[in-house]
Specification:
Helix Hairpins; alpha+beta; elongated
Length: about 375
């Protein structure tokens, strides 16, 4: 992050806290903003994504006591909200004059560089950090296949993951056993190099010699090739919540790859694949079931027995004159919702037309048709 960002951005305003806010208040404010604006909860919402990134940036600075102190001192020196301007032709910027005034004239003082803790370089000298900060571990993605019943009721399943970890042979140094990496001479161990962009300040970017590690390995570890990272395969127990849908993506915080230098672990993203059931289907948190009934049952009415997914059989009353395709509801026999309530079982009736009738049955139906005096159901097709 550049010094320009530090001086122009009001991180307290971004999080909506006072300058005297405690670390707990800052943490709570960030969590609230992150929860409401997380990209997973607001897909395609660029404004929420920007808000989330700004809050994350502010939390990175204000949650670290040392960085917060440097930030406060920098903004106090320039009154906060300072805007950078390009130098005019033939002369230095007002900022450069300020450096000279701070040192009593001439070149900028080293004390000013101490104030900013090596976050930027000054003309006439440089200051670089000599330590690498914590780095968050990578996120891991994987698939897990569960049964239809497990998706409805929830389950704990075993999942095998492969991720990066510190190489056990070199213990993360990247150097062959018996040797040690050396500090990168180009970036002096900071992992960052600076380039002049005009005026006094320089832009920082990852060092191309050490690829941002701050260290150079002359004799690479044969196991990891000098990267310091190895492949870790482990089996973990993953809790699948009740009511999960086929193709749904679940985030398990802190279950990803381990961080570096004390950094937090990444997250595990699990895509759930649900095997279909031979009888039941899903419609949100409701289960669906197609039940065949005879022509006589649909016509005269009947009480039939139907199965449920994980409980005992239940009785269903079919009213007389029920048409084919009617859907009836059995409450409380569906999938469990996040709030603890349960969906319903939606039963669609399929009236079966009899086949292979005997002569007596055909005669009985013919007599029925004669006595029923039913209206021709196709008259409407011809304007009747």
């Amino acid at each position: 992050m550049s010094t320009k960002d530090w001086l122009e951005k009001d991180y307290y305003k971004v999080l909506g806290v006072s300058k005297n806010a405690s670390s707990d208040e800052i943490k709570k404010a960030f969590r609230r903003i992150a929860r409401d604006n997380h990209p997973d909860q607001n897909p395609g919402d660029k404004r929420a994504e920007t808000r989330f990134k700004e809050a994350s940036e502010a939390n990175t600075i204000l949650s670290d006591a040392e960085k917060r102190k440097e930030y406060d001192e920098a903004r106090s020196l320039f009154g906060g909200g300072f805007k950078f301007t390009k130098p005019g032709p033939g002369g230095p910027t007002g900022f450069e004059d300020l450096f000279r005034n701070a040192g009593g004239g001439g070149a900028p003082t080293s004390g000013f560089g101490d104030l900013f803790g090596g976050l930027f370089t000054q003309s006439g000298g440089s200051r670089r950090a000599t330590h690498r900060g914590p780095r968050r571990g990578a996120d891991i993605e994987g698939d897990v296949e569960i049964t239809f019943e497990q998706a409805v009721e929830g389950a704990t399943v075993s999942m095998r993951t492969v991720s990066d970890q510190a190489c056990p042979a070199c213990r993360g140094t990247g150097a062959k056993a018996g040797t040690l990496p050396r500090v990168c001479p180009r970036c002096e161990g900071s992992g960052m190099t600076s380039t002049q962009t005009g005026g006094v300040f320089q832009m920082s970017e990852p060092c191309t010699d050490c690829l941002g590690r701050g260290l150079i390995v002359d004799t690479p570890c044969p196991d990891c090739g000098g990267s310091g990272r190895g492949r870790s395969t482990k089996t973990m127990q993953v809790r699948i919540p009740a009511g999960v849908a086929d193709g749904q993506r679940i985030r398990l915080k802190g279950k990803g790859a381990a961080g570096e230098n004390g950094g937090a672990s990444g997250d595990l993203y699990v895509t759930v694949k649900v095997t279909p059931h031979p009888l039941f289907g899903r419609s949100g948190y409701n289960l669906t079931l197609e039940v065949p009934v005879t022509f006589t049952e649909a016509t005269l009415g009947a009480e039939i027995t139907i199965p449920t997914l994980s409980g005992p059989k239940v009785k269903l009353r079919v009213p007389a004159g029920t048409p084919n395709g009617r859907t009836m509801r059995v409450r409380g026999k569906g999938a469990r919702k996040p709030d603890g309530t349960v969906g319903d079982l939606l039963v669609t009736l399929d009236v079966q037309v009899p086949e292979g009738l005997t002569d007596e049955a055909k005669a009985a139906l013919a007599e029925y048709a004669e006595k029923a005096h039913q209206v021709n159901p196709r008259e409407a097709l011809f304007g009747g």
